[in-house]
Amino acid sequence: MFNINLQSRMPIYEQVYKKVIELIIKGILVENEQLPSVRNLSKELNINPNTVAKAYQELERNKIIYSLSGRGSFVAKTNRNQMKEHILEEFDVCIKEALQSGLTKEELKNRIDGVKL
Amino acid sequence: MFNINLQSRMPIYEQVYKKVIELIIKGILVENEQLPSVRNLSKELNINPNTVAKAYQELERNKIIYSLSGRGSFVAKTNRNQMKEHILEEFDVCIKEALQSGLTKEELKNRIDGVKL
Amino acid sequence: MFNINLQSRMPIYEQVYKKVIELIIKGILVENEQLPSVRNLSKELNINPNTVAKAYQELERNKIIYSLSGRGSFVAKTNRNQMKEHILEEFDVCIKEALQSGLTKEELKNRIDGVKL
Amino acid sequence: MFNINLQSRMPIYEQVYKKVIELIIKGILVENEQLPSVRNLSKELNINPNTVAKAYQELERNKIIYSLSGRGSFVAKTNRNQMKEHILEEFDVCIKEALQSGLTKEELKNRIDGVKL
DNA sequence: GTGGTCTAGACCACG
DNA sequence: GTGGTCTAGACCACG
Questions:
Q1: D chain contacts of residue C115, beta-carbon cutoff 8 Å
Q2: Angstrom distance (rounded) from CA A29 to CA A35
Q3: CA-to-CA distance for B59 and D34, rounded, in angstroms?
Q4: Torsional class of B47: left (φ above 0), alpha (ψ -120 to 50), beta (otherwise)
Q5: Cα distance between residue A54 and residue B21, in whole Å
Q6: Alpha carbon distances (Å) from A37 to A28, A41, A68
Q7: Whole-angstrom Cα distance, residue A72 to residue A33?
Q8: DSSP secondary structure code for residue B83 in this structure
Q9: Among candidates C79, C83, C107, which has minimal Cα distance to C95?
Q10: How far is the CA of C29 from the C1' of E9 (A)?
Q11: Model pLDDT for residues D23-76, shown as the tens digit of each residue
């Protein structure tokens, strides 16, 4: 379910962070649902607990999850639209970079059609 | 003309690298035109000469510029389409990230329309 | 009446502890009055009985309540002034932190006037 | 200059965090001044570099310092008033707790006069 | 069992 | 030399 890529140049903790957001946007993780514990997830992904903890702390700081002391971490009151907006703002940065490099909006939109996941 | 942001999370050498490509795509730098020397550019931007050198090396490795020993660096036979393709491939990464986060192609295309530089 | 916040960074047992003191200072709980049983209070607040027990133990240790084995916990001979002193000593810690951060006593006193509960 | 208390229940990284703010409020660290490097400060305080790094990252996240990659950490455009406000907001929490415990504003203000650092 | 803090130490990119 | 990331593993408070 978490699919971490150790080879990627994107830090692992950031991959975990984004994965949680993705699962919420897709409705796989829902409000107040408990996330896997730091220890369990780190075992499952075969990474260090600290790395998972860092991702969770970042998520909590951004009010995407909350933790109850001694009980675990849970999905916060999720505002999916707000979360989409969050992702789209990151996408904006890419758009601007491409436009600044001299490409046109038409070229970018056409490119999107061609992308396969 | 070069507009470097020292506080950006993007490495400085990468900013220089992209800036040169941008100037070529926009036709500001043209085939066989001489680039500023490493020394001059580093002074102008107030950054380490090694940083400029690294950007130039990367550009040369990708056949975007060529250097004549003792004379300087010059814009290579520019294939603008190839360069656009290069930018678009970077953009692909952003598209994929956004799609993987659960957004749709429609949402991304609409977003592009709204962006102002 | 007890108003516990599970998401607060303040430990739950400490919240219970403080709440009892507050109720005594306000005269809502009076000398020799029986406190809710550990079991009942934990059910009402939906928290672990051990957590309530810990708060009660701490209160007993500080002579704020006393317990009769098999009968329950009761408000001790209350010395309101002593209790106020207790709260004020906690407040001292905050004052010192603020002063150490470079603020002046005047600034702190003015701030108190502005606070609304 | 940094005066860390290893016995305190306040986490070390938080003490470092607050110390930097204090030094800025007091004008000892000024805009664009370079902070001691993570390594140097950790040696001086005899604590782990990661602990200092955590404090610096938190400071950077809150725009109190900024880092130039490969060069070091520097005091950001400091708005002292904004920083005071930051401290005062923390103080508000203490005031509210004390008021909720049944004390009066007068009692709190008198207490401030009596505090010695 | 849960997350939070910390140490010791490694490796990396960047400059 | 600089900060950023990560591991391995310890200890702690809380529940």
A1: 92, 95-96, 99, 105
A2: 8
A3: 33
A4: beta
A5: 36
A6: 17, 6, 12
A7: 10
A8: H
A9: C107
A10: 55
A11: 998 889 999 999 999 999 999 999 999 999 999 999 999 889 999 888 899 999
Q: What is the largest CA-CA distance in chain C?
A: 52
- Nearest by CB to A88, from B25, B100, B111: name it: B111
Contact criterion met (CB below 8 Å) for D91 and D45: no
Cβ atoms of C112 and D95 closer than 8 Å: yes
Q: Which two tokens stand for residue D63?
A: 């725009």
What is the phi-psi region of residue B48: left when phi exceeds 0, alpha when psi lies from -120 to 50, beta otherwise? Answer: beta
Q: What is the dihedral of CA D68, D72, D76, D82, to 10 degrees?
A: 130
**Measured CA distances, B38 to B4, B17, B31, B47, B66 (Å):** 15, 13, 19, 10, 13
Reduced to 3 states (helix: H, G, I; strand: E, B; else coil), residue C96 is: helix
Q: What band does D20 get if pLDDT is binned at 50, 70 and 90?
A: very high
Higher-confidence position of D96 and A9: D96
- Angle between helix axes A49-61 and A38-45 (nearest 10 degrees) is 130
Instruction: Enter the tokens of residue D17.
Output: 């965090």
Helices (H), A62-114: 80-100, 105-114
- Chain D residues with CB under 8 Å of a chain B CB are 66, 68-69
d(CA C37, CA C43): 10
Cα D114 to Cα D112: distance, rounded to the nearest angstrom: 5
DSSP state of B34: B
Q: Residue B40: its pLDDT value, please?
A: 93
pTM of the model: 0.82
Higher pLDDT, C117 or D113: D113
Q: Which two tokens stand for residue D111?
A: 């207490």
3-state DSSP assignment of residue C39: helix
pLDDT digits (tens, 9 = 90+) for D77-89: 878 888 888 889 9
A76: left (phi over 0), alpha (psi -120 to 50) or beta: beta
* Record: contact C11-A69, CB cut-off 8 A: yes
Q: Please answer whether residues B72 and B34 qualify as being in contact, where contact means their C-beta atoms are separated by less than 8 angstroms.
A: yes
- Cα Rg of chain C, angstroms: 17
D9's CB contacts (< 8 A; 6+ apart) are none
Dist CA C45 CA B64 (whole Å): 68
From D68's Cα to the closest Cα of chain B, the distance in A is 6
